[in-house]
Amino acid sequence: MRKEECFYLGKIVSKFSYKGEVLVKLDTDEPELYEEMESVFVSMRNNLVPFFITRSRLHKSALLRIDFEEVTSEEEADKMIGSELYLPLSFLPKLEGNRFYFHEVIGFGVSDSVHGDIGIITGVNDTTTQALFEVDKDGKQLLIPITDDIITKVDRDNKTIHVTTPEGLVDLYLS
């Protein structure tokens, strides 16, 4: 399994017990969806290694306490701290309406209510306070905030996101 075929689930942040249990900080709004996993991929030395789960349960909000079959001691758990966890993209629940996963919209066109076609989404910058679409229009990069106020429709059939950008935003990039 390659990372490109997976999504980031979270990171092992600490060990929990002397028996090798670990705590994972999940990167999700719905941690309860991941309580019943049978296995997960752990990133180790740039490879995704499958680990089978004996037992997992939520621990204080977005932390998941996991007991891996192959990890039975504190020393083994120590070696895993900081490792990232991944699951295949097929495990993601299907989203509808204007809800979407960032990876899902890469390559979608962007149509503005005033300017029409303003380019193709080449990436999503979520390192800032406000997540942004990175849109390419004839070699120029536009940054469009990802908000419910701006996104008017996600058209999966035509691979287009319809937006109403604030006045002057598109002109700032294209003039």
UniProtKB/TrEMBL annotation:
Highest taxon of source: Bacteria
Classification via Gene3D superfamilies: PRC-barrel domain (2.30.30.240), RimM (2.40.30.60)
One of the record's GO cellular component terms: ribosome
Keyword Cytoplasm recorded: yes
GO molecular function: ribosome binding
InterPro entries, per database record: PRC_barrel-like_sf, PRC_RimM, RimM, RimM_N, RimM_N_sf, Transl_B-barrel_sf
GO BP: ribosomal small subunit biogenesis; rRNA processing
Keywords: Chaperone, Cytoplasm, Ribosome biogenesis, rRNA processing
Pfam family, one: RimM
Location of the protein in the cell: Cytoplasm
Domain (Ribosome maturation factor RimM PRC barrel): residue spans on this chain: 103-169
Classification via SUPFAM superfamilies: PRC-barrel domain, Translation proteins
Residues annotated as domain RimM N-terminal: 9-88
Family: Belongs to the RimM family.
UniProt comment concerning the protein's domains: The PRC barrel domain binds ribosomal protein uS19.
Subunit structure: Binds ribosomal protein uS19.
Record's function text: An accessory protein needed during the final step in the assembly of 30S ribosomal subunit, possibly for assembly of the head region. Essential for efficient processing of 16S rRNA. May be needed both before and after RbfA during the maturation of 16S rRNA. It has affinity for free ribosomal 30S subunits but not for 70S ribosomes.
NCBIfam families from the UniProt entry: 16S_RimM
The protein's name: Ribosome maturation factor RimM
